[in-house]
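During the reporting period the student researcher (J.K.) took over the structure-prediction task from the postdoctoral fellow and processed the backlog of single-chain submissions. One of the processed entries is reproduced below for the supervisory committee.
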Amino acid sequence: MTDSSTEGIQIVLHPVSDLEKAKAVYSALLGMQPQSDSAYYVGYEAEGQQIGLVPGGAGQGMTSPVAYWRVADIEAKLAEVTAAGATVKEAAHEVGGGRVVATFTDPDGNVLGVFQDK
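J.K. obtained the following structure tokens:
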């Protein structure tokens, strides 16, 4: 194994079917209004962790919340986890602001995410 440790889980995305209802629940849970609020994504910054609501996430293959670990080198980490038995679900791609994300599944089909800020 290489020395490519993660910097911890920093983002958790939740697929939601009704954005307004979900936003009310998460705002009550976190005790704050979202910092990002659009029709395609609602995001909260809570104690250094980003909590995101993804409307229609199930249609994007999200069947449960997905935790994203920050990594220094996303391609190296994807190579490492696939060599260990993971399967890339969504290849590394930029989502804006210099952030690159990817998802993979573990041998049991659980979806895990990694991201890198460039």
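The committee noted the following: The longest strand covers residues 87-96.
J.K. will present the remaining backlog at the next meeting.
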